[in-house]
Design brief:
Elements lengths: L14 E9 L9 H17 L3 E7 L14 H10 L9 E10 L1 E10 L4 E2 L3 E5 L5 H11 L4 E8 L2 E6 L2 H20 L37 E9 L5 E8 L3 E8 L4 E7 L13 E7 L6 E8 L2 E5 L4 E6 L2 E7 L5 E5 L7 E7 L2 E8 L6 E6 L3 H37 L2 H13 L3 H15 L7 H19 L3 H20 L2
Parallel strand pairs: 1-2, 1-3, 14-21
Antiparallel strand pairs: 3-4, 4-5, 4-6, 7-8, 7-13, 8-12, 9-10, 9-11, 9-13, 11-12, 14-15, 14-18, 16-17, 16-19, 19-20
Helix pairs in contact: 1-3, 5-6, 5-7, 5-8, 5-9, 6-9, 7-8
């Protein structure tokens, strides 16, 4: 059923691809339609992809609607392949193609990668004529083909990779350019009329005889997602052996035809192990965004039911940080595509504090949820300390003014007025009382055992600043001195 399973070096190993086609009843086609379509795709595919892919086409042996849904389980699909007698080493890729007709021919395409056991997104296209279905399928499958690469070396954020079939892809790209040049060179020149080639109408994408891209090609600026695959001694996948590195992407910076050089953008200090492991394959699979943007939702990492509102999202750009927006009442913010950056590195801030680094490929997922530290307790503590500090400043200023009045009345010999102002000084709140309030509030804010250590440390720092302000107050010493000076003034006044 599947294509050959020769074990070849990675650089010249083609993608062994099985294509399943399922025409809907609305297409009104005969039993031989899929065979004829497959033959035409085989001819056009060889002419446009060369040796990059070894492809076989057939009628889908099972209903595809289940596997076209977002909830489709890749592991269950891999089991389904085994039940059909298709082993992973026999088939690298499975392309699912469903056809419907409602005036136009509607094509739905989805790709499954056997090595990483992952589905791509469901992509769609439409053409008006039946004769254009085959070329539309090739264009769609080539454009949304997810290249696979092997990680060679990781040095901090710098990473080198080798794309599967890199030599075949490079040869096909060069050959296609040569064929196009030869075809243009054979166009006979106009004899009498000068042709303005720039003024000629461009052909519609559905009318183009060749796909614009070569399958498996990774261009500069494209994004890939790193994957770890753990095998047993026989090279078979172990249970739960596929791990997609969370919040980590690779941005291709250079492709010299044999090796990819890129930068790894991650929310973690060490997202991928730098050392090689015989039983662990370090891979990266290309990303083909489906949407125009991605909705990022921020929730408390201790409870996904608690959205985090009012958190500012900044994007790191070459010109500096850019404010993307702030999370709404549901903790959501829309991250639009950036034509200059396939991978956007986002910084989540609250109250001037950095809470998380979140790399995102806008359009790769329609929505994604980030569980981050809830800064709410720190904000509450900050609000309390700010209010307490205002009270402290007001109290210290009031006590200083009253102290100056007492001192002045003593100097002027107005003993009764001095006693009245000293009583007012003693009746007001003291800095010691405010310090007690600060210590009590600190205990209340830090009593939660589930409090994040980082937030706990920041709350502690807020209260420490308040305690340092209290230590600067000398008003109680001044009050005692004024009381002694007043007593001395009374004795001097009572003497004849």
């Amino acid at each position: 059923m599947a294509v050959g399973a020769d074990q070849l070096p990675w650089e010249i190993d083609p993608y062994r691809t099985q294509v399943w086609i399922e025409p809907d009843a609305s297409c009104h086609v005969d039993d031989g339609f899929v065979t004829r379509l497959g033959d035409r795709l085989q001819q056009q595919g060889y002419a446009t992809s060369g040796a990059v892919m070894r492809t076989s086409y057939e009628l889908a042996p099972l209903p595809l609607s289940r596997w076209m849904s977002e909830s489709a389980d890749p592991a269950r699909f891999a089991e389904q392949l085994k039940e059909l007698g298709i082993e992973p080493y026999q088939c690298d890729r499975v392309h699912l193609i469903s056809l419907e007709r409602d005036g136009d021919w509607k094509i739905r395409f989805r790709e499954f990668d056997s090595l990483t056991q992952s589905f791509g997104a469901v992509h769609e296209a439409a053409v008006q004529q039946r004769e254009l279905v085959s070329s539309a399928i090739l264009r769609l499958s080539y454009a949304k083909f997810a290249p696979l690469a092997r990680v060679n070396e990781v040095q901090k954020s710098n990473i080198t990779l080798t794309a599967r079939g890199a030599t075949l892809v490079e040869e096909e790209a060069i050959s296609r350019t040569q064929r196009w040049s030869e075809a243009v060179g054979q166009i006979p020149p106009a004899e009498d009329t000068e042709v303005d080639w720039d003024a000629l109408p461009a052909a519609a994408p559905s009318e183009s005889p060749l796909p614009e891209t070569v399958p498996g090609l990774v261009g500069p600026g494209e994004a890939l997602q790193p994957v770890l695959r753990r095998n047993d001694r026989q090279g078979n996948l172990v249970a739960n052996g596929i791990v997609f590195m969370p919040w980590t992407y690779i941005r291709c910076e250079e492709n010299d035809g044999l090796q990819l050089k890129g930068s790894m953008v991650s929310g973690y200090s060490q997202a991928m192990p730098g050392r090689r492991n015989v039983r662990t394959q370090r891979l990266a699979i290309g990303i083909r965004p489906l949407f125009d943007s991605t909705t990022l939702k921020l929730v408390d990492k201790t409870s996904e039911d608690t959205p985090l509102a009012g958190y500012e999202i900044y994007a790191k750009n070459a010109d500096g940080p850019e404010l993307v927006g702030a999370s709404d009442a549901n903790g959501k913010v829309v991250i639009p595509n950036d034509p200059k950056n396939s991978v956007r590195l986002l910084y989540v801030r609250s109250g001037g504090n950095l809470l998380a680094r979140l790399p995102v490929v806008p359009g790769f997922e329609q929505s994604t949820t980030a569980r981050i530290t809830n800064d709410g307790p720190r904000l509450l503590a900050e609000g309390f300390v700010e209010g307490w500090r205002d009270q402290l400043i007001d109290t210290m200023a009031r006590r200083q003014i009253l102290s100056q009045r007492v001192e002045r009345k003593i100097e002027e010999g107005e003993i009764e007025e001095a006693e009245r102002w000293l009583a007012a000084l003693r009746s007001g709140r003291t800095v010691n009382e405010l310090a007690f309030d600060l210590r009590t509030a600190k205990g209340q804010f830090l009593k939660d055992n589930k409090l994040d250590p980082t937030i706990k440390r920041r709350i502690d720092q807020l209260f420490e600043k308040g305690q340092r302000l209290v230590a600067q107050d000398k008003s109680l010493l001044v009050e005692g001195k004024l009381a002694r000076d007043l007593e001395a003034a009374k004795k001097n006044a009572s003497q004849p």
